[in-house]
Design goal:
Length: 277
């Protein structure tokens, strides 16, 4: 009950066709990540240029946490669905935005950040009523799972309450580890607060949709209490990859240095993950 149902249901669908469930999970996540890379490339290219699109894809592909897009986790699927929903909303395709948004909130809890994103963007840009409807419709995935939990377990928020049993660090502990230069804490602070700074700095270049989703997602993560996997969840915020892609497209020498560091840490994480560490 701790995990939203779309990814497990897709795995089960392939398993009923005779595919081993482990293979199904890897294939779904990996192909969804490939789809996310293609979608984000054309989305960024439409709004900016090919250089920004290439660097954004490089950030998504070489970030060490892209490791989780190739194993049985929801990162790849979440990136594909959120990018699809945000791009559709930007283009005024509100039915598609609602469809992808509902699937997003059925995939992972932080997907609910799409709801205030759509509503705030619709209000700020004076969009038609259908835009507001897309925002509310995006909650269908979350509310459907809550209804299931209420019927099955007698607790509509069972998916939230069960996670309180997991040991989580506090922000004080994270900052202590940050000043001790521990890698996990450094990555968490850099991605959350560095990402927030870049969102603000580039707010005039980024679309309102991207900025709102970035800030709503960061606010949700900061206050969620689920800080153990904070860097993983931050990687799933596509706004952060877009902003860094824009910065690196303007400073390619920095980009090559960043990609080199990414590649080193990606290899390090892959080895540790394979060893079960």
């Amino acid at each position: 009950m701790a995990f939203h149902p779309l990814f497990p249901l897709l795995m089960r669908g392939l398993a009923t066709l005779g595919m081993p469930v482990e293979v199904a999970g890897v294939l779904i996540n990996s192909f969804a990540f490939l789809g996310a890379l293609v979608l984000v490339y054309f989305w960024v290219e439409e709004r900016y240029d090919a250089g920004a699109a290439k660097w954004t894809n490089a950030v998504l592909a070489w970030c060490p946490f892209s490791l989780f897009c190739t194993v049985i986790y929801t990162e790849g699927l979440f990136l594909f669905l959120t990018a699809s929903a945000l791009r559709a909303f930007e283009r005024g395709e509100y039915i598609w935005a609602a469809f992808w948004g509902a699937l997003t909130t059925a995939t992972r809890g932080p997907g609910v950040a799409l709801i205030p994103t759509f509503l705030l963007t619709a209000w700020r840009e004076k969009r038609p009523p259908l835009a507001y409807a897309a925002g509310f419709a995006s909650a269908i995935g979350f509310f459907s799972f809550s209804l299931y939990c209420a019927i099955r377990f007698g607790d509509a928020l069972a998916c939230v309450h069960v996670q309180k049993a997991w040991v989580q660090p506090t922000w004080l502990e994270i900052f202590k580890d940050f000043f001790s230069f521990r890698l996990q804490a450094v990555s968490k602070v850099a991605m959350i607060f560095g990402g927030g700074y870049l969102l603000w700095y580039l707010r005039k270049r980024l679309s309102i949709t991207v900025v709102c989703f970035g800030f709503c997602s960061l606010a949700l993560l900061i206050n969620s209490g689920a800080l153990q996997l904070l860097h993983r969840y931050a990687y799933g915020i596509v706004s952060l990859s877009i902003e860094l892609g824009l910065v690196l497209s303007s400073h390619p020498r920095w980009g090559y240095a960043v990609m080199t560091l990414f590649a080193i840490f990606l290899l390090y994480m892959a080895v540790k993950f394979a060893a079960g560490a």
